[in-house]
Design brief:
Layout lengths: L4 E6 L2 H11 L2 H23 L3 H37 L4 E6 L4 E5 L5 E4 L4 E6 L3 E6 L3 E6 L11 H8 L5
Antiparallel strand pairs: 1-2, 2-3, 3-4, 5-6, 6-7
Length: 168
């Protein structure tokens, strides 16, 4: 049986960074942004009150929080990249095959294949160059927008959203 969609993806540093950003829980992202915004508002209030020492402190806290959030994401992506380098000596290449009722992913470096159902996809995130399918257990499947082996890649977004009924 032929797959409905076939995709080739290389897990480059950029792809892993996009995947990591897409995988961050919404609550954590909102928490960091909200706390940073509160610190910035406090800094503005301190300027109005002419308390410049506290202005600098709150502004520094806002910047530090935003920087820590970004550093954590970059660190997680680099950790994945380093692990791939240690295991395989290069970026991981995958082939993902989408059938009527099953997704099969194959790691070309290890030769292993994994089969899952569309009902296991709990979240679909679209980034500039990827579709990130987040499965149960926070396992992510990367689908490269430019990596469709057949010419039907433009139809993939609609297809995956229809198939993954449990996904947000």
């Amino acid at each position: 049986m032929e797959p409905l969609f076939s995709n080739a993806c290389v897990q480059t540093e950029q792809n892993l960074l996009e995947m990591t950003r897409a995988s961050v829980p919404v609550w954590y992202r909102l928490y960091c942004r909200l706390l940073s915004a509160v610190m910035a508002v406090c800094a503005i209030v301190m300027v109005i009150m002419k308390m410049y020492m506290f202005t600098a402190l709150f502004f520094a806290l806002a910047v530090i929080l935003a920087a820590v959030y970004e550093a954590k994401i970059r660190s997680a992506a680099k950790k994945s990249l380093k692990r791939n380098e240690e295991l395989y000596g290069r970026d991981v290449e995958t082939r993902i095959f989408f059938y009527e009722d099953t997704i099969i992913g194959k790691n070309l470096q290890s030769g292993t294949a994994v089969r899952t159902g569309y009902d296991k996809v709990k979240k679909i995130v679209e980034t500039p160059s990827l579709y990130v399918l987040i499965l149960d257990g926070n396992i992510s499947v990367l689908v490269d927008k430019g990596g469709f082996i057949s010419d039907n890649g433009a139809d993939f977004s609609k297809f995956i959203k229809e198939k993954c009924v449990n996904a947000k």
